[in-house]
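ugh ok fine here u go
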Amino acid sequence: MTSSAPAGSHRAAGIEKIIQNSNVDDVTAISRFYQSGLYQELSDEKSKLWHYGPMTLYTMYQEELLTGACEYPEEA
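structure:
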């Protein structure tokens, strides 16, 4: 399968979703995401969050904004 999406497009897709749904510019969206607990967890190799897709990570980010907690989704 060949894709024309640039490397890191999963991250870009998540940030794009934040921008669209938060009505903020890209710099603000990226800054807010980098300050989140989700990003701290995502940055930790041991968390294994990197294996989730952009929509799952976006949902986790939104949940953190609403509840103040970063919770992992249940595995299927």
